[in-house]
Amino acid sequence: MTPQNLLENLSTIQKCSTGCPILDRCLGGGIPCNSVTEVVAESGSGKTQICLQLALHAQLPVSSGGLAASSLYLYTEFPFPFRRLHQLSVAFRSSNCRSDENPCDDIFVQSVHSAGELLDIMSKTESFIENSRTRLPVRVIVIDSIAALFRSEFDNTPVELKRRSSLFFKISAKLKALAKRFNLAVLVTNQVVDLVVPDEGINGLRIGNLGCLYSSGRRVCPALGLAWANCVNSRLFLSRYEEVVHEENGKSYEETGGVMKQMRQLHVVFAPHLPGSSCEFVIKKEGVFGVER
Amino acid sequence: MKGFEVDLTRLRGGIFHFRRQKEDLRLGGIESEGDEKMDVWRLPISASLRGKLISAGYTSVTSLSSVSSANLAQDLNISNSEALNVLKVASHSGGSECLNENPSIINGAQNAWDLLHEEESLTHITTSCADLDGILGGGIHCKEVTEIGGVPGIGKTQLGIQLAVNVQIPHEFGGLGGKAIYIDTEGSFMVERALQIADACIEDMSEYNRFLRKDCQPCQMKMEPKDILEKIFYFRICSYTEQIALINYLDKFIAEHKDVKVVVVDSVTFHFRQDFEDMALRTRVLSEMALKLMKLAKKFSLAVVLLNQVTMKHAEGSFQLTLALGDSWSHSCTNRVILYWKGDERHAYIDKSPSLRSASAPYSVTTRGIRNSASSHKRIKMM
Known about the structure:
Chain A is of the alpha/beta class. Chain A contains 9 helices and 14 strands. In chain A, helix 3 (about 45-55) packs across helix 4 (about 80-95) and helix 5 runs parallel beside helix 7 (about 160-180).
């Protein structure tokens, strides 16, 4: 066993662009390779949008912030959003002048129904990446979402919970081993659960920079508990809330009567390389974009 | 333990005479091995001179090597010829290190006095947070195994990286000038972050340099952040078998790299929470590993820092937060520090230690690394 040369690592450290320079800046350059990043949010917050956008932008050459790579997209929430991917790919092609090939060709999609199946697929993934004759090497794995695999299968008994957390660590170790071996960027999404009695039990426990997580005016916390929180390297949280806009299109508050506008924010909950920060973003037809304040 | 120390200090007066006689007989010989920090007291000079030296801050023989006799005479308020004599003795004893071995009946046996002396001269690695150093008795202790645990995002990895950087602070700045081994089991070590912390550390040192050595000849800062990264031996581990194999191999590795002064395992837990059906086996494997690490710490007088995760323990109908790996593991470490949130502030708490009082102190994680918490800044300024 010999130690790795950190200086060498420094020059090869790579991040994959999320497709928006403002979001990338908030994330210190994008989603890091050789690391597991988790995006936590309630449904309809833009988790899947970010995943799809990452899978597309990974195909860009390194000079444009991508990894010149294809991606493996494991989905557990049905159906896979093919139409949205197509919509995004059209915008992606026009904005990046890539008319020659269809970016959807370089996203490998696989459905997963259970935690056991996910473990199986990850073993196969290893040989798939190693022996693949894909046009671009696989450098991104997306799991959307991890929570869906665990939310029905396990009972709320100590034995079952122990089996569940053992599986978390197994999955995480495999993901990290894959990420290290092939220098992959791994993005995992997770759902949230509502906090019924705040500050009590496991869910009231503070994890990360934010004292408490709010989305749509409710206090929430990431699903899968403390054990899973130990399994990821970085955790991002997407929140949304409604705000009364006083002026829109030049009309004053009196004229519009106050329009409720959907606001979205991305927060860094914890990450070994990032300070706690947040960034506002919007979801458009062309994709997810950060907004500068 | 506290009472034990008090007794020893009381004893010390009696033993001291005996010591001095022995020294006088040897004339210039140095007691016990090693060049510990407080080695001025071993110089064969009068006790009053020795006292003056120590109170003027010349605690080690090496600190005398670069000072002129005129300066020394001024600092100690003694005549020039006396100062010259002190320097002569110091340089002489510096050259004749390890002249004689510790005369003990059983090889390696030490008496309580030696142990006490050893403990006093124990070296520390600063955490860069004065409050944290305060409750830890100067920093993370060498020759001991310290376990640090906390929830995700509390700053365990940050503290690990900070220690791997701080161990390299040169002797002139009160550091150990050593190297670090970083065993990464989770993949959370980010080189860009280590570089950031190293940068800040060097900046702080040059600041300190300017501040303290205004009148003396300025000591050149030659360190580069890249040099610091080069002196961190980084191992990325992907399974528990690899982890055990590496820890078995460390003995050989450190024997070849004697200047390693800290071993950080981030985290010790991760691979042991996956697939262990047989919990008894896990306990055995873990305690064997802990024993090996403890031996390493003693043998090479280095600090071992084990980072641990937290888990929920179901006890008496309620859930409690506790460090992972179970009750028997909690015996494996000399010191145990728990990191937790208190409101919006990060705190560290000494949960277990044979020599330190249980206490807690705030700290914060900044872009420059681990630092004092913002709330305690006021107090520091007043001092």
